[in-house]
């Protein structure tokens, strides 16, 4: 009996950077065989994108960047020059034996190579083909290239992220990680899984998935877009405050700051009692959330005066004891050292061919019957000959000839 949910599903991953690799990593985590097609010599752009590199046993940098390592676990690496006819032929052979192909080349590139959806579906009608692009397969911007911060700007995310105008640091702000890439990767993985289900349960044939980063970013602002469509009012930036609830924001305390989330008027009463200011719970200006919104600035000064008596750990524990949401504002080191995060085993260690072992953040889903296995991302081209010989039936001499031409 298999212990991997997608056992027997083969994915050809012709993607680079983040969104596509994350989608394919998700499928690999759940048991699919993911064959990552990389450029000869250089591989995925993120292998050399800078930032920290994994250290070997002697403490020296290896060739493996942390950005690449973060989005390519559980895969196999095959190097192919797609611009060569021999390389294109190899992709057709792989597609004939695969269930899914994911690519994020510029619009029309793979079609010029004879590797578009219509080309490959004739070879394998069951193939699910997912194209990840910035602007999609049609529309006035379809041929444009784009990167995550461009979509954060164009899609409205930066307009609702950052401190309010008139406050120190006010103005549009990019989210501190490539959130549109990440969300697109997760949406693409979900669509691929749904297409596999539909193929195997309903149609018997594959289909084409058009995944566009700008579309995903627009969908991310779902309730804010709807608020505009209903009211005609353009949503504004609120920094760490919440436009609909008070207090639901960062507040100063002794020695630092905490995040407080008071979700209703009942919790407001509990919050005031713990802070030693029970009179505010019945004050007509603050008793109801509508009043707290109207008198936000005055209320913040009163709350912060009370919070100044103790530090964040004290208030976090005291408020959680009465069911009011409160937490410290951790940096990455503090998060990974948190006892609950440690208990949940989010940080693990896996063997690595260059480093001996490497740290890894695990897949966050914990499945009772089919637990996720975690293997280090592959070295560039580590599986090329194995895949060509054992899956495609090439001989060693044929592989040597392809390598001599630079096709692999």
Q: How would you characterize the overall build of this protein?
A:
The protein is α/β, with parallel strands linked by helices and 408 residues long. It folds into 2 domains: 10-219 and 344-405, Rossmann fold (3-Layer(aba) Sandwich), CATH 3.40.50; 248-330, 2-Layer Sandwich (formyl-coa transferase, domain 3), CATH 3.30.1540.10. It contains 18 helices and 13 strands. The chain has a 6-stranded parallel sheet with strand order 5-2-1-6-7-8, sandwiched between helices. Helix 1 crosses helix 7 (179-203) and helix 7 packs across helix 8 (213-220). The mean pLDDT is 96.
Features:
408 residues, Rossmann fold, formyl-coa transferase, domain 3, 2 domains, 6-stranded parallel β-sheet, 3-stranded antiparallel β-sheet, 18 helices, 13 strands, 39% helix
Low-confidence stretches: none
Taking the sheet with the most strands, its summary is: 6 strands, parallel
The CATH level-2 architecture of the largest domain is identified as 3-Layer(aba) Sandwich
Q: Kindly report how far apart the N and C termini lie.
A: 36 Å
Any idea what the CATH superfamily of the largest domain is called? Crotonobetainyl-coa:carnitine coa-transferase, domain 1
